[in-house]
Amino acid sequence: MYSRVTLLEIDTLRVEIADVLERFETEVLPRVRAMPGYEGVTVMVTPDGKGMIVSFWNTEEAVEASAGLAATAIEEFVTVYRA
């Protein structure tokens, strides 16, 4: 099993964490789940907005293929991140 780790920090002064998580679940997660080799994902966020997304893949190739989707998701969420 392989994983991709994304560290993030949500700007809690501009957006609610629950809103960001809901948006992730409805807009990004379905696309991630549809990718070949997807095994699962864990999202962790502290009350002050620091977080980590760990996605799991069955091959190294699947992780590499997920890079494009990861980059797109980061661009789509750029307005909610502090870092």
How is this structure best described in words?
The chain is elongated. The protein has helices spanning 17-33, 60-65, 67-76; strands at 2-9, 38-45, 50-57. The chain has a 3-stranded antiparallel beta sheet with strand order 1-3-2. The N and C termini lie far apart (28 Å). By secondary structure, it is α+β, with helices and mostly antiparallel strands. The model has no long low-confidence stretch (mean pLDDT 91).
Topology:
Blueprint: E1 2-9, H1 17-33, E2 38-45, E3 50-57, H2 60-65, H3 67-76
Antiparallel strand pairs: 1-3, 2-3
Q: Tell me the strand order in the biggest sheet.
A: 1-3-2
Percent range of helical residues: 25-40%
Largest sheet: 3 strands, antiparallel
The stretches of 5 or more residues where confidence is low (pLDDT under 50) are none
Could you name the key traits of this structure?
83 residues; alpha+beta; three-stranded antiparallel β-sheet
Task: Please summarize what this structure is.
This protein has three helices and three strands; from the N terminus they run βαββαα.
